[in-house]
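User: Can you predict the 3D structure for this chain?
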Amino acid sequence: MLRVVLDYVALTSALLNPHGHAARVLDYAREQRLRLFATREMLQTESRILRHPSLSHRLDMSGSELDDFLADLPALFCLVPEAGTSETTRSLEAELLWCAEQGRADVLAVSSPLPAGNDPPEGTQVIRVDQLVELVDRGA
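Assistant: Here is the predicted structure, written as structure tokens:
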């Protein structure tokens, strides 16, 4: 089973467009065709993104429905434990790469190329979300 980390844009897209490639990745996770990994910080960031007024109006949910949805979101992901007890602040890219490394991800599914100098951990392939969908559809 593929171990996958989704970038922030892909995860937000999945939640805003239930018919897109990124939403299919969430469906595959629900069907246990792949495993999604995230850190608690990644999910908290996603919560802030979805609550932002520029996006929250695009969701077909009331405030309480969004609260319930966000409370249930961790159940879809294998949470990667945070490092030690001290809080560390990482850039969004660094958080994704750290999660991929700690979760021993096979795939980091991105919506755009990683900035130069942000190399994935050894054994982790960086591909677009649509390529991930093709892989899963072919039985990878």
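The chain has a mean pLDDT of 89. The longest strand covers residues 34-39.
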